[in-house]
Amino acid sequence: MNKIVNPISEIVIKADHLTKKFGQFTAVDDICFEVRKGEIFGFLGANGAGKTTAMRMLSGLLIPTSGVGQVAGFDITHQPEQVKRNIGYMSQRFSLYDDLKVWENIELFGGIYGLNASQIKIKTDELMQRLNFEDERNKLVKSLPLGFKQKLAFAVSVIHHPQVVFLDEPTGGVDPITRRNFWEMIYEAAVDGITVFVTTHYMDEAEYCDRVCILVDGKIEALDKPGDLKVRFNADSMDEVFLQLARKATRLDG
Amino acid sequence: MKQLLSFIRKEFNHILRDKPTIMILLLMPVIQILLFGFALSTEVKNTNVVILVPKADNEIRHIIDRVNASDYFDIVGFVHNADEIENAFRRGDAKLAMIFENNFSENLKRNGKAHIQLIADASDANTAKTFTFYATSIINSSQKDFSLQNNANGMILPEIKMLYNPQMKSAFNFVPGVLGMIMMLICAMMTSVSIVREKEMGTMEILLVSPMHPIYIILSKITPYLLLSLVNFGTVILLSVFVLHVPIVGSFFSLLMISVLFIFVALSMGLFISTVTNSQLIALLISGMGMMLPATLLSGMIYPIENMPVLLQILSDLVPARWYIIAVKDIMIKGLSFSDVLHEALVLTAMAIFFITISLKKFKVRLE
User: Fold this and answer.
1) Residues A120, A104: Cα–Cα separation, whole Å
2) How far is B171 from chain A (nearest CA, A)?
3) How far apart are CA A135 and CA A129, in angstroms?
4) Residue A158 CA: distances (Å) to CA of A88, A206, B144
5) How many CB atoms lie within 10 A of CB B9?
6) Looking at residue B149, what is its pLDDT?
7) Angle CA(A53)–CA(A212)–CA(A74) in degrees, nearest 5?
8) What are the start-end ranges of the H helices in B243-277?
9) Could you report the per-residue pLDDT of B202-229, keeping only the tens digit for each?
10) Rounded CA separation B322/B177 (Å)
């Protein structure tokens, strides 16, 4: 199910010796990688490995302690405003407003990302149809099941067709079938040319990525296609690869 | 601009869909005004009085009639000695005893001087102070009646006039106080909680990675509460004018101006609170303990500032509600103009600028 990413397509995310320290604690330790347009890039790691911190730096929410990063051609330290205009973001804490209706959430985020009323209307209709949400359009988001909310949150995060979408553990707490559905949406976005940067600790999801990067204690321990990693570590699944690497972790949870 | 409008609409949706909260916010001023106006009144009415009269005559009867006729006192009985008075106090039958001296009327006529002893149950000191004051003024005015009747000269009569509030209506004091309290509550507490809720829910993160300018987030948080406070301002003013009969002597426009200014101070304080905490509970505690309590206790609404220890008086200078209450009293009750409350207006402006500056500095565009 892996698609081919053109190896000469442009680089949209670039991390060059990125480091983030919180006091004495080094959350992200000197990481370097490049992600190309349309790629689905998985960021794997145990809790506390530094996934979220790395993602927050790339999305302009945190300033790196040292190192340089570029997203969509803009410097994350000095041009956070331009970076923000070109990315979408979905956090692990479910990121829509519970007390707003489905269409109101779409309208709100459409408005925040500068879509005009007619664009929002077209997008909303299109989304409702594609997600089979027609009956839910007028419901409050809090009345929807978690899987629905996650799909909606993803759809909203790419409503402005950003160059990159950051997904921070987007599928926490749902069953494998719902996760599978969710990943179909991610594929569609990637085919559309949106680069997907996704953190996860579900290894079945790691298999869906074009390339994965395994983070242990803030450092990159491995970075390659899932298939190549399995060969290199002589493992049957990404799960085994991950366990071999994560065993070295010294950091506790959190 | 479109960003801002869609965001303001979202804030209104949040508020209007939270039915219990909006009900509380709209009804609270009504309940507070009615409670303070009718139940928690600091006016003392229908105090039970016992009277000890050695020998009744016209003068004494005149005074007793006046006491009886007043709303403030109910004569519950006549007693004959000190023991009975003590019993009446012990049983709680009476709060005040009036004891006329022997030969009261003769002394009054012959020496122009006679004594009435007032014994009050001062277990509630403020109440006792109030009703003994009432009793004294009744006695004084009777004394005036006698001097007119007898045409007696040289009798010195104390005359007390209550400026601005001749009936000593407590509404004059608490209407400005309730205004100050409600606005603090709605603006400071609700604004801070609503910003901090976004932090807690994780939606703030989404807003911060969006291209929306942080100032828009702040403006859209503030707007609904500004409107809500104005609605409450209207409610309180209508109730106090038409139900409690507290007039607006000065100009309504000045009153509105100073109130809007105060609302801005409260909003900026709410904003400030939201920048120093990430938890709704703490925001609630800070605004409750740190803003509401001083707004009620140190603002002069309930306890006169002049009676406070110097340290607390200095502290009360820092309470915005104090300046607001002074200004509202000046405009609403004394009928002074806006230029007379310029001092208070300047203090409030300075406070608003102070809080807005530090909160804008602290409002985190990035999550640190």
Assistant:
1) 10
2) 40
3) 10
4) 6, 21, 87
5) 17
6) 61
7) 55
8) 252-276
9) 888 888 888 888 888 888 888 999 999 9
10) 9
Closest CA of chain B from A245, distance in Å:
30
Distance CA B350, CA B334 (A): 25
CA-to-CA distance for A145 and A201, rounded, in angstroms? 22
pLDDT in tens, B303-342: 777 778 888 888 888 889 889 988 998 898 888 888 888 9
Q: How far apart are CA A120 and CA B276, in angstroms?
A: 36
CA pair distance B255, B181, nearest whole angstrom: 16
Chain A interface includes B19 (CB < 8 A): no
Tell me which residues of chain B have a pLDDT lower than 50: 153-162, 368
How far, in Å, CA of A160 to CA of A157, rounded? 8
Around Cβ B364, how many Cβ atoms within 10 Å? 12
Cross-chain Cβ contact A113/B210 below 8 Å: yes
In this structure, the number of other CB atoms found within 10 A of the CB of residue A57 comes to: 27
Nearest to B202 among A81, A91, A109 (CB): A91
d(CA B342, CA A37): 62
> What is the C-alpha to C-alpha distance for residues A164 and A140, in angstroms, rounded to an integer?
28
Residue bearing tokens 């209508």: B238
DSSP 3-state assignment of A19? strand
**Which residues in chain A touch residue B365, judged by CB atoms under 8 angstroms apart?**
80
pLDDT, tens only, A64-119: 999 999 999 999 999 988 999 999 999 877 678 988 999 999 999 998 888 888 99
Interface check for B70 against chain A (CB to CB < 8 A): the answer is no
Q: What are the helix and strand counts (H, E) for chain A?
A: 9, 10
